[in-house]
Description:
- It is a single chain.
- The protein has 205 residues and is an alpha+beta fold.
- The chain is built from three helices and nine strands; from the N terminus they run H-H-E-E-E-H-E-E-E-E-E-E.
- The strands form three sheets. The chain has a three-stranded antiparallel β-sheet with strand order 1-9-8, with no helix packed on it. Strands 2-3-4 form a three-stranded antiparallel β-sheet, with no helix packed on it. Strands 5-6-7 form a three-stranded antiparallel β-sheet, with no helix packed on it.
- The radius of gyration is 30 Å and the shape is globular.
- The relative contact order is 0.15.
Amino acid sequence: MSDHSAPSVAEVDQDRRGFLIFATVATGAVGAAFAAVPFIASWSPSERARAAGAPVEVDVSKIEPGQMVTVTYRKKAMYIVHRTPEMIGSLAGHDGRLKDAASKDSEQPAYAANATRAVRPDFLVLEGTCTHLGCLPKPRFEKAMPELGADWPGGFFCPCHGSRFDLAGRVFEGSPASKNLRIPAYSFPNESTLVIGVDASTGVA
């Protein structure tokens, strides 16, 4: 005969009640966790929004003078160049060597249809896609580079087929590309923030 007596009905009911309470709390916690997933996910831009071209924000205060950074907008490379006073000055004096010096036949917002092709002369914002066959032009900011000649003022060189652009993205004569590099819609909501994809004249994406 066993030394242990069978549990009473009261003990069984107490154990069952404890189990049910634990199971209910656990189920509720799991349900709350699943419910939180779509709520938390809603804080981030959706894949559809990113594919449609949600605006891209850049802290330009971190870009040193003379430096270029590349960001992606609508699956395209965007070049942002912090131009020095010397780089801005290099834009004058070679209009006669350009295909479209005044950018009349090239694509840019109205507020960038000026001598520097920019909202702010110190920052150049370009679509980094050659207007010939879509290659990526390389920065060649140094003047008189041996590969580009003693009269090279600094700018961009496309190694695929040899198109050359100045530091405003304007194409030089003799290049296969026929138009200047495209400038996207962008704006500066404050001194240190650039937003690509929001128009400076309307504030609309």
